[in-house]
């Protein structure tokens, strides 16, 4: 069982997640329990949610559905490989995926090595040109003011945390 705690400033809560795997003779796979605790001076009680992340989960005290992924899935429409940009993952990883499907691990290693070596060369070229990678869809903030504010309420350790904020400029679906 793994346990992880994190601040959720948007909820004004500290979340403690417990993930459980199936035991050898008993238990249920993919289960979790999350306890969302308000600040120490808050008047509300903790919210507890239990369930499985691959089917559904509910509030323990209310029975309210937290998430449910059992509904029919929508098929993903992907442009043909020849119409994709060089960084789109299906095009970038096409040779690797084909090699895996065919059990040709020499091809897998060759294509994977090419991607890795191209990336290493790009980083060397950027360093030589004294350039850094420009973020396209995120803004980097060295010290997240929201985390700091709520971190003080929960005595967070570390007291500061960096964050990448999505700029909502991705392709429309």
Blueprint (SSEs and pairs):
Layout: E1 2-8, E2 13-20, E3 31-37, E4 47-52, E5 56-59, E6 65-68, H1 89-92, H2 94-102, H3 105-128, E7 138-141, H4 145-154, E8 163-166
Antiparallel strand pairs: 1-2, 2-3, 3-4, 4-5, 5-6, 7-8
Shape: extended
The strand order across the widest sheet is: 1-2-3-4-5-6
User: What is the makeup of the main sheet?
Assistant: 6 strands, antiparallel
Low-confidence stretches: none
Task: Write structural notes for this entry.
The chain is of the alpha+beta class. It folds into 3 domains: 2-68; 86-128; 135-173, no CATH class. It contains 4 helices and 8 strands; from the N terminus they run ββββββαααβαβ. The strands form 2 sheets. It has a 6-stranded antiparallel beta sheet with strand order 1-2-3-4-5-6. A two-stranded antiparallel ribbon has the order 7-8. The protein is extended. The two termini are 37 Å apart.
Keywords:
six-stranded antiparallel β-sheet, alpha+beta, extended, 173 residues, 3 domains
